[in-house]
Amino acid sequence: MPESIRLFIAIALTEELKAVLTEIGRELEARIPPRIVRWVKPAAMHLTLVFLGETPISRLAAIKEAVGAAAASSPHTSFRAVGLGCFPNPRRPRVIWVGVEETAGDLPQIKEALDRELEPLGFRREKRTFSPHLTLGRVDRRASNHEVAELGRVVERATLQEVGRVKVTQVHLIRSDLRPAGPVYTILASFPLARGHEVTEGTRNGV
Questions:
Q1: What's the pTM?
Q2: Does residue 48 belong to any structural domain of this protein?
Q3: Which residues are tagged catalytic?
Q4: Residue 70 φ/ψ region, left for φ over 0, alpha for ψ in the -120 to 50 degree band, beta for the rest
């Protein structure tokens, strides 16, 4: 057994939404230079809340206790998947994403509760502002400047209306095993959120 494992905390997506996101990736792929984006496989799609990184297995019990406490103090919520963009910007995109929109501010509240409970265990808060998103793909570092610029223009011109909604009633502690064919994710534990409201899932309105 390894002494450490790679961990993160995330919200799961519906199978319906993952299928739609995969279709959006295929449509974008048809408009850009070939093989410059490594598209995320449906099984690997999620909304990341906290990336813990390489972590000693000996700390797993304490992490589970911390995540459980954060979840118990956090509300149920929901979010819309809408809009298309890239990090850091369309002029030099490295990550292609679909936006996450929710008006109540519950996702930052869940993130803050996780950070608060994990900080005493030695996990530092990220300095950058929490920007929830659904990653569609990552740009291959071998792509030329011209190819990257063309990709940015395609993303900037695209209009993506709401493609789905997700009810959030729990968060997951997930193990990530890096493999040549791509990462393999395993849910180690799931933690119910304490309270909240529900909404129905949406359907795709077009890209």
A1: 0.89
A2: yes
A3: 46, 133
A4: alpha
